[in-house]
Design brief:
Strand content of chain A: 5-15%
Strand order of the largest sheet of chain A: 3-2-1-4-5-6-7-8
Radius of gyration of chain A: 22 Å
Order of helices and strands of chain A: EHEHEEHEEEHEHHHHHH
Number of helices of chain A: 10
Largest sheet of chain A: 8 strands, mixed
Helix content of chain A: 40-55%
Structural class of chain A: alpha/beta
Distance between the termini of chain A: 52 Å
Oligomer: homodimer
Shape of chain A: elongated
Chain lengths: 255, 255
């Protein structure tokens, strides 16, 4: 089982290390920058390149882990071969491989990856898609070596899942950033928020987030809401406060 | 140590039960509705009333746990006595007691409370304020029986802390609600998001949320962002997506 990685970002880093850990061989890493390619190849102990024309042609699996804007262009730049070509992008259809490869699919790990942070792949939900049932069965074998949580999902459903993940992860994380900024300005250590943040998440393991909602917006406590708005001098933060409070209120009226 | 609770909402429910658990006696519960007062008094095994004029006058501690809009009015409706009067509202100054009580303060537990969900008070950060140092020392003794995490914080700082908590808890929880809705529409079980949500929070225990940020907005992947916007037909969700993506991008440029 030899694998070539095309891309060396956060996801490629964590996925390639997880694959190596379960005994798969990473044959080569490509990135358009020598720095990224060299850094990941150094961790994996394998060759690297910034030149698509020298990609090893005999790997079993080619993992394209690139941002949407360059994915199609890079796929078109790789010479056809007999390997299984997959990408890892939530919002890109499987059909980006059409006309470029005969065996292809998608492996979308529903997780947030940072180069420097180890994650336990065992519990990460992996969403697969393949261009034929035969490729699907072969591909599922590879994926189940990485995680116990593997299922098939169409490109059409996957793009909605990716959108939901942007809300659940990227947007909530950014709101933590804003909350931390508010406290830093007041010289209050931001870590005081952690028990609250932990409990907010623990709650939705036992009840729906709609049922778990608390605070001034669901009570529509205008007194508090107006005081809060007056305290926010950043216009974007004020707009975020208004829009989310309104949305919480609207949601509670719908129920 | 006898305590009277004025208010019977989520916070009053969890705080009174926690106080009872450490051996404090809840003497009476007031709420403006018989249903709420009776429900909490039933759990505590104590008398209840909806009439402020029959509030027991001999308690050591009076806990006013009410939303901001009615807090001042209810305080003004209670006959002066020798107890320590406190409220639990993040955004209300301690001075709401001026002219109504001689001994007063604030106990703000930084947590999200639901009537039906038990919480471990031991780790909840409690922020205290008292009108004199003497009351502060007495009050701190009471609070440390509930939590290991007790400190003093002024009304001015507390209102900023409360604002940050609305972001970190209420807004993130609402974004979970929106993410769940997106998946339910596609008939994908919303629980698939939980490992992602858990990891998003686990990350900020070891790095700042700004350093932990991932996803299309921080890469400013217009291809993905535009596809996502086209998929959102609810105008409020579209506006939330645009505003938060822009704010993530802006934040990453500032660094």
């Amino acid at each position: 089982m030899k694998i070539v990685f095309v891309g060396a970002g956060n996801l490629a880093t964590r996925l390639s290390l997880a694959m190596q850990r379960v005994g798969m061989q990473i044959g080569q890493v490509y990135s358009h920058t020598a720095e990224s390619a060299g850094q990941l190849a150094g961790r994996l102990g394998c060759p690297w390149t910034t030149d698509l024309s020298v990609l090893q042609p005999d790997a079993d699996l080619y993992v394209f882990s690139l941002k949407g804007t360059v994915l199609e262009e890079v796929i078109a730049g790789v010479k056809p071969n007999n390997g299984l070509w997959i990408h890892t992008a939530g919002s890109m259809p499987m059909t980006v491989f059409e006309g470029h490869a005969s065996r292809y699919g998608v492996l979308y790990p529903l997780q947030t990856f940072s180069k420097g942070r180890e994650v336990n792949f065992d519990v990460i939900p992996l969403f697969l898609e393949a261009n034929t049932d035969k490729e699907g069965a072969y591909f599922k074998n590879i994926a189940t070596a990485l995680s116990e949580n593997v299922r098939f999902l169409s490109s059409e459903k996957r793009r909605h899942l990716h959108l939901a993940a942007v809300f659940a992860c990227n947007f909530t994380n950014h709101i933590y950033t804003l909350a931390y900024k508010l406290l830093e300005k007041e010289e209050i250590p931001a870590e005081v928020l952690l028990p609250l943040i932990d409990e907010t998440v623990a709650k939705i393991h036992t009840m729906s987030p709609a049922a778990a909602q608390t605070g001034p917006a669901i009570r529509y406590d205008k007194n508090v809401i107006n005081k809060h708005l007056a305290m926010l001098d950043d216009p974007d933060m004020k707009a975020i406060y208004q829009l989310l409070s309104w949305s919480i209120h609207k949601e509670s009226q719908d129920e």
